[in-house]
Every structure is written in C-alpha cells, then in structure tokens.
Amino acid sequence: MPDEREPATITPYRDGPLVVRGDFRLVDADGVEFDPGRDVVALCRCGKSGLKPFCDGSHKRTGFSAPSAPRSDRPSQRLAALEQASDGDGGAGA
User: Taking every annotated instance into account, which residue ranges of this chain make up the domain Iron-binding zinc finger CDGSH type (predicted)?
Assistant: First the structure.
C-alpha cells in the first residue's frame, strides 16, 4: 500500500525539539499551509532557532531544558506492546 501514509506522531526529545513523523500539515499563523518537503521534521521548542519553526540546534547553545516523552508514549514501544499482546493471544477467538 505505497499510497497510504502513516498518521502523524509527535515525539518531544529531552532538552530538544519536537520530532514530527508521518502524514502532517504545517500551517503558519496566517493559515497558509507550506510543504517542508519531507515526512520527518524537527520543530523548535526552545524559541531560539533562526530557522523557525524548524530546529537549528540552538537549544544546545542556550541550555534549553525540557522533558522527553514518557517511555510508554513512544509509538515504537506502543506498537511492540500491541504486537506482543496479540502474539500471546493463543488463538483465543478460534
């Protein structure tokens, strides 16, 4: 299914950007949509980037501090947990 895109996920990285993956739209303050040209972007959350809304690494120079996503909120871990649960099903529906 090459035409289907993954739903967007947003992952906050500790002391760093918000990483957006999947099918998403970026819209500016005036409501104008623009295409970043990729399926994964890092968005600034320190407010110091010279490339806003994108991260340029300024958070490292400014000592920005913010938590990462709780481990249970990370999409890859949720998927692994779901796969594990379905594998342990033992064919209960049969």
Answer: 29-65
Compute the C-alpha angle 34/36/41, nearest 5°: 130
pLDDT tens for the chain, residues 1 to 94: 455 778 899 999 999 999 999 999 999 899 999 899 999 999 999 999 999 999 999 999 999 999 988 765 556 666 666 677 766 554 444 4
In whole angstroms, how far apart are CA 6 and each of 21, 38, 49, 57?
8, 13, 28, 27
Burial class (CB in 10 A: 0-12, 13-18, 19+), 24: middle
Contacts of 71-79 with CB under 8 Å at 24 or more apart are 74/11, 75/9, 75/11, 75/21
- Backbone phi and psi for residue 11, each to the nearest 5 degrees, phi listed first: -120, 115
What domains are there in the chain, each with its CATH number?
9-87 (3.40.5.90)
